[in-house]
Amino acid sequence: MKLLMIDDDTGLCELLSEYLTAQGFNVQSVHDGEQGLKLAQANDYALILLDVMLPTLDGFEVLKQLRQTKLTPVIMLTAKGEDFDRIFGLELGADDYIPKPFNHRELLARVKAITRRIEHITTMNTTSSNKLVVNGVTINLAAREALIKQTTLTLTGTEYEILALLAKRAGEVVSKEQISEDVLGRRLASFDRSIDMHVSNIRKKIAEHLPNELIKTIRGTGYVFIQGE
């Protein structure tokens, strides 16, 4: 699988490229935001590792412009303790984040959790008509897309996975911890708002087509997809 790493730390790029290549990935590195954006727009990568602090264009601007045309999965590389960077990146459509400095094994686990979706897409039978319809939302499990009134919602891979999980268990409370483990492939850390931000993004996109609140927050527990009548 092809990965793109956009980071101005050339030493880190070399180390991670060597490590991820040994794990079977094809890694391309670039060290400024403008060039990284051009490559991301012109090529189909399985995943992009995107640093926040970059020359020419910062990581937020790269992600913002990329999301106008592509839903390529993105893991943001953020400074440790910079909660604003994490939240803002998720608001712009990042799939996950990992604070620097990080353990290379943890990064590999995050990468594999997201790229497993790509493997699933390429091996499943896309001619299947397996669909789930819940309270006005149609989840096409084969095509991995969600529709409202025949209009496809523009969801990132992570947003789709969360929506599909909640829809499959409509009427049940699904904990944030369960969502994180099932979708992000990792345990939810204390004060981690990633699931909250992804759900917020999903709600905004649904609200463009349906006035009713379909995903209800159960304070201190998780979320429930309203089953409807």
TrEMBL record:
Does Transcription regulation count among this protein's keywords? Answer: yes
Query: PANTHER family from the xrefs?
Result: REGULATOR OF RPOS, TRANSCRIPTIONAL REGULATORY PROTEIN CPXR
Q: Which GO terms describe its cellular component?
A: cytosol; protein-DNA complex
UniProt-annotated location(s): Cytoplasm
Provide the residue ranges listed under DNA-binding region in this record.
129-227
Q: Which domain of life is it from?
A: Bacteria
Residues in a coiled coil are none
Q: Which InterPro entries match?
A: CheY-like_superfamily, CpxR-like_REC, OmpR/PhoB-type_DNA-bd, Sig_transdc_resp-reg_C-effctor, Sig_transdc_resp-reg_receiver, WalR-like, WH-like_DNA-bd_sf
Annotated signal sequence is none
Gene3D superfamilies, sorted:
3.40.50.2300, 6.10.250.690, Winged helix-like DNA-binding domain superfamily/Winged helix DNA-binding domain
User: Which residue ranges does the record assign to the Response regulatory domain?
Assistant: 2-115
User: Which molecular-function annotation in GO is an example for this chain?
Assistant: phosphorelay response regulator activity
Q: Does the keyword Cytoplasm apply?
A: yes
Q: Which residues carry this modification: 4-aspartylphosphate?
A: 51
Q: Which residues form the OmpR/PhoB-type domain?
A: 129-227
Annotated SMART domains: REC, Trans_reg_C
| Originating organism | Pseudoalteromonas translucida (strain TAC 125)
User: What is this protein identified as?
Assistant: Transcriptional regulatory protein CpxR
Tell me, which GO biological process terms does this entry list? regulation of DNA-templated transcription
